[in-house]
Specification:
Keywords: Coiled coil, Cytoplasm, Cytoskeleton. By secondary structure, the protein is mostly helical. The protein is built from 8 helices and 5 strands; from the N terminus they run αβαβαβαβαβααα. Helix content is 85%, strand content 3%. The longest helix has 235 residues.
Length: 597
């Protein structure tokens, strides 16, 4: 039941206090509590009185690990849980890691001397624990006093830190308020300056707009004048060009007539040249045909030579076959001779028949292998010669096909050359007729352009007179506008001087405020120095107290050593007394009677 309850509380975020007093929690409950302390972030108070958690070492160690990982629990009650010195050591390890627990109640357990020392040692690293109850644990009084002193140190440290934090908060608030006031004053000053700048910019924009309008009107008039002048110059240039064109056209007509005569003559010459070239090309083509015929003859000769080579190779093949037959006959004769020798050897050497038969078999096998190898080599040579013959026949076919294609290409080139010469003659005649027609049309157009340009010159002269009168009026208006501008510039100078005086006054006020801010900064620096001095003094006091604690601990160790010696001596004395009493009892008459009974 406890496991289910704690499993549900792991994800809870509203429960602040949990009381499980007297519920007989065992290892499962202790492990569930450790898991709860690891995952839960809302519980601030946990009561576990009368649960005997210290009896289960594994579960209690898991619980202590969860306590070390928790940073939200502030109060823990572990009264009457039979915690021994080992459990106290694990609790001390957890307290060194924990940074949130403020109250811990361990009354009526079995912590003892070793557990008290472990808890005292952990208080050197734990700075958050304020209250630790150790009554009813057989802990010596000096350890209890040392624990109280360590807790008092923690409380003093926390009070000093809280006071310093409060002072820092007060100073930061004052500094922020002063900063906000200065920012407000500066923003007001910046707003006034911006307003003055905007008014000045508006006046400058209006004046600049007027000036720009007048300047644009003047520029337009100048551009009109320049355009009219440019038109006059263009018309004059066009007239001069038209006169030159008329003169040039007359010259061109004469030149064209001369060119026509020259072209006719050149055309006649070109025709003659083309005829000669065509005759030369025909001669070249005939020459090429003769060369192709010669090539054909050479190819035929090559074919004949190849056929001769084929015949020679066939004769060689015939000779090779004859050689094969001769070699086979010789081999057969050798075999017959070998058989005769074997028969003679059989007659002579009857005892070594078996050995000789084996040798004969080996020689016959060797000869047959030699015959087969020679036959194979001859067959391979015949196949190679046949392949060479086939390749030569293919080369002959290719050469004949190439000769036929070259002859067809030469005939096609002759036909193309004749057609091209005819087309070129027709195109040249058409081009000359088009040139004559265009020259006549351009002469008529030039005469019309001359008449139109004379009319444009007269109109342009009239417009120039009107624009000169309009320009005089604009010049008078410009003089008036320049006088207005001068008066407005004088007014602007007076306004700028006034603004400068006001800005100087505001700068003086700002410098005074800046001096006040510097004084405040000096005060803040002095307060920070005081804080640093207080913190340094506090650190020195802490170091002194830690030194005193170390001395007290050494004294405690010395006293514990003396106590252990005294206990050993008392134990020895008690053993001596017990032995003496036992000896006395055994030696007395009462002891003898009791032994008899």
């Amino acid at each position: 039941g406890v496991r289910l309850l704690l499993h549900g509380l792991c994800s809870n975020t509203t429960v602040k206090s949990l009381d499980l007093k007297g519920n007989n929690l065992r290892t499962v409950g202790a492990e569930a509590l450790g898991k709860l302390l690891r995952q839960n972030k809302s519980i601030r108070s946990l009561t576990l009185e009368w649960n005997s958690l210290g009896m289960w070492e594994e579960g209690f160690s898991f619980f202590c690990q969860g306590l070390g990982a928790n940073n939200f629990l502030q109060r823990l009650d572990l009264r009457n849980n039979q915690i021994n010195h080992q459990g106290a050591g694990e609790l001390a390890m957890a307290l060194t890691q924990n940074a949130s627990l403020q109250e811990l109640d361990l009354r009526w357990n079995n912590i003892g001397l070793l557990g008290g020392r472990a808890l005292l040692n952990c208080l050197h690293s734990n700075k958050t624990l304020k209250r630790l109850e150790l009554a009813g644990n057989n802990v010596p009084g000096d350890i209890l006093k040392a624990v109280e002193q360590a807790l008092d140190h923690n409380q003093d440290r926390e009070t000093i830190l809280s006071e310093a934090q409060n002072q820092m908060n007060i100073l930061s608030k004052e500094f922020l308020s002063l900063k906000e006031e200065k920012n407000k004053q500066f923003m007001d000053f910046v707003d006034t300056v911006d307003k003055q700048k905007e008014e000045k910019a508006r006046s400058e924009r209006t004046s600049a707009a007027r000036i720009s309008q007048l300047q644009e009107a003047l520029d337009e008039q100048h551009s009109i004048m320049n355009s009219l002048k440019a038109k006059l110059q263009m018309t004059e240039a066009a007239l001069a060009l038209s006169e030159q064109k008329v003169h040039n056209l007359g010259e061109l007509l004469n030149a064209v007539k001369q060119e026509q005569n020259c072209v006719v003559e050149c055309h006649f010459r070109e025709l003659q040249q083309q005829k000669q070239e065509s005759a030369d090309r025909e001669g070249k083509l005939l020459h090429d045909l003769s060369a192709a015929g010669e090539k054909n003859l050479l190819l035929r000769n090559q074919v004949d030579e190849l056929e001769r080579k084929c015949k020679v190779q066939q004769e060689q093949l015939f000779q090779v076959k004859q050689d094969l037959t001769n070699t086979t006959a010789e081999l057969k004769l050798r075999a017959v001779q070998a058989e005769e020798r074997l028969e003679t050897e059989k007659r002579r050497f009857k005892q070594s028949l078996e050995d000789m038969e084996s040798l004969r078999v080996k020689e016959v096998d060797h000869m047959t292998q030699h015959m087969e190898a020679s036959e194979r080599s001859m067959h391979d040579r015949i196949q190679r010669l046949e392949a060479i013959r086939m390749s030569l026949e293919e080369e002959l076919r290719q050469v004949k096909a190439a000769a036929l294609t070259e002859r067809g290409q030469a005939e096609e080139e002759l036909i193309k050359v004749r057609t091209q010469t005819r087309l070129e003659e027709q195109q040249r005649l058409e081009h000359l007729t088009e040139k004559l027609r265009l020259m006549t049309e351009s002469r008529d157009e030039a005469q019309n352009c001359c008449l139109k340009q004379k009319e444009m010159v007269a109109e342009a002269q009239a417009k120039v007179k009107q624009s000169s009168l309009y320009a005089d009026g604009l010049r008078r208006r410009l003089d008036e506008l320049q006088q207005d501008l001068r008066s407005k510039e004088e007014e602007k100078v007076t306004e700028v001087n006034k603004v400068k005086v006001e800005l100087q006054e505001q700068i003086g006020h700002l410098e005074a405020e800046r001096a006040a801010q510097d004084a405040l900064r000096e005060k803040i620096a002095a307060l920070e120095r005081q804080l640093k001095a207080l913190s340094s003094n506090h650190r020195e006091e802490l170091l002194d107290k830690e030194g005193e604690i170390s001395l007290l601990l050494e004294k405690l160790r010395m006293k514990e050593a003396e106590i252990s010696r005294v206990r050993e001596e008392e134990a020895q004395r008690a053993s001596f007394l017990q032995n003496a009493i036992m000896a006395y009892v055994q030696g007395s008459p009462l002891g003898t009677q009791s032994s008899r009974k």
